[in-house]
Amino acid sequence: PEIVYKSESGILTIRGKSAPVGVAYRESSPNVFEGAARVDMRLFGLKPPTAAFGAVGTDPWMNLSFKIKF
After folding, report:
1. Are 61 and 38 in contact (CB under 8 A)?
2. CB-based contacts of 27: which residues, under 8 Å, 6+ apart?
3. Which residues on neighbouring strands pair with residue 16, listed in sequence order?
4. CA distance 23 to 56
5. Which single residue of 37, 40, 62, 65 could bond 23 by disulfide (Cβ 3.0 to 4.6 Å)?
6. CA nearest 21: which of 39, 1, 36?
């Protein structure tokens, strides 16, 4: 799915659903930014994966990380 984060508003959009999310980022070297966020996938209409016909569930939190070079 497409993931868009707008730093000026703090809005993260996944699959067309938006929610405010704090993303920690830093300039790791000139023109290179790295960051991460821990996000509850249910905010974006995503269901946590299951196994064994739903008997085994997983954490609804996902870790997102990125590295952008300009």
Report:
1. yes
2. 33
3. none
4. 30
5. 37
6. 39
Task: Name the residue with tokens 């966020």.
Answer: 37
The 10 Å Cβ neighbour count of residue 14 is 21
Question: Is this prediction's pTM over 0.90?
Answer: no
SS3 letters across 1-69 = CCEEEECCCCEEEECCEEEECCCEEEEEECCEEEEEEEEEHHHHCCCCCEEHHHCEECCCEEEEEEEEE
Per-residue pLDDT of 18-62, as tens digits, reads 999 999 899 999 999 999 999 999 999 998 887 777 677 788 999
Q: What DSSP character marks residue 70?
A: -
Paired sense of beta strands 11-14 and 32-40, if any? unpaired
CA atoms within 13 A on the CB side of 65: 2
